[in-house]
Amino acid sequence: MKAITLLYGDTRSNSDMLYLGGIHIHDPFFCFESNGKAYALLNPLEIGRARKSSKFDGIFDSHRILDTLPQRRRLSGDDCDAVCALLKSEFKARRLRLAYNFPLYYADRLSEARFDLEILPPGELLFPRREVKSKWEEKQIRRANVAAEAAFFMVEEMLRRSKISGGKILFDGEILTSEMLIREIEKTAIAFGADAMDTIAASGAQACDPHCAGHGPIAPNSLIVVDIFPRMRDSGYYGDMTRTFLKGIPSEAQMNLVETVKEAQQAAISNLKAGVDAASVHSKVCEFFDGRGYKTGHTAKGYFGFFHSTGHGVGLDIHETPRIGRANVKLESGNVVTVEPGLYYPEIGGCRIEDTVMLCKKSAKLLSNYHYEWIIE
């Protein structure tokens, strides 16, 4: 008999559960897929809403199932007892597929209940079909990127309205900081029905640490990396975009750096289509930077050059498969990935330019849209 795929958690932290049920449920619960159909075991607080608006093919009442158990188990039982009883009685299950991060406590309970467990290793997907996005999913990702675009416009306007005085950037008389930009980005995203958590708005040396959110004053005449990845509150899908700005006058080294990153990104996008090996796209970006004299390496202070992947999948998680990096992965039509090469040198600054694209048979189409003008005097 084919194994049943079993999940436990909440839809805020477990994107597979949100994918399977298409509904936000923030208290942990069990759900599973059997013979291509999805089922959930819920308490009475969630059943009515789930029956009206979820994608589950069947919904079971955990309280009613517990009431069918013998008296001793009924008094001490929990949802794990209920799901064990349901899987054995209704689905005749013997084998269960679990993700590598399935809770150990419940995995032990399932083993004690004499289920054979197949625990997938990290990197092996419960639902590989998530890599290929539908038209509806494409629309959700576009919506999230519209929120990002609005936030970039707001950042650009704040920089345009600001003045440089005394070695500082002043916005409405206050020193402009990373925290101010991030706060306004978050507010803009909310206005578009999205949450922009962990946004990056970093300048100077901070911009050379790709995942540094940024803190303190934004430096004038310095490259400012702004990475915005909003998540739609209703559907749960992410967008992802990065632009690099500069308030003031750039140096020749900064201009060459930004133009090189932009060329690399556009070349990588032009190389993407169904059937292409992801590692070859990443390798070409590395070779391009190296050929332009931008070397990658590390010192005691950290890495410099181009030291991250060219891109990653985007969907219900901000970082999904497939990834555009060193691993050989054949890309498919319907994959949605970012393209985000970057260069980071503390003596020059950091630059990253990122868009989200969807792979088609012969090319890749943009799911994000914002200009690449970066100098704001």
What are the defining features of this structure?
Creatine Amidinohydrolase; Creatine Amidinohydrolase, Chain A, domain 1; four-stranded mixed β-sheet; 377 residues; 2 domains; alpha+beta; 25% strand; elongated
Description:
The chain is α+β, with helices and mostly antiparallel strands and 377 residues long. The protein has 2 domains: 4-126, 3-Layer(aba) Sandwich (Creatine Amidinohydrolase, Chain A, domain 1); 131-376, Creatine Amidinohydrolase, CATH 3.90.230. The chain is 33% helix and 25% strand. The chain has 10 helices and 24 strands. A 6-stranded mixed beta sheet has the order 4-3-2-1-5-6, sandwiched between helices. The protein has a 4-stranded mixed beta sheet with strand order 11-12-14-24, with helices on one face. The chain has a 3-stranded antiparallel beta sheet with strand order 7-8-9, covered by helices on one side. A hairpin with a 2-residue loop joins strand 8 and strand 9 (174-175). The N and C termini lie far apart (67 Å).
CATH superfamily of the largest domain: Creatinase/methionine aminopeptidase superfamily
For the record, the CATH class of the largest domain is Alpha Beta
Fraction of residues in helix: 25-40%
**What is the name of the CATH topology of the largest domain?**
Creatine Amidinohydrolase
Output the radius of gyration. 24 Å
Q: Classify the beta-strand content into a percent band.
A: 25-35%
End-to-end span in angstroms? 67 Å
What is the CATH-assigned architecture of the largest domain?
A: Alpha-Beta Complex
Query: What is the overall number of helices?
Result: 10
Number of domains: 2
Major sheet characteristics: 6 strands, mixed
Q: Report the structural category.
A: alpha+beta
**Quantity of strands, as a count:** 24
Principal-axes geometry comes out as elongated
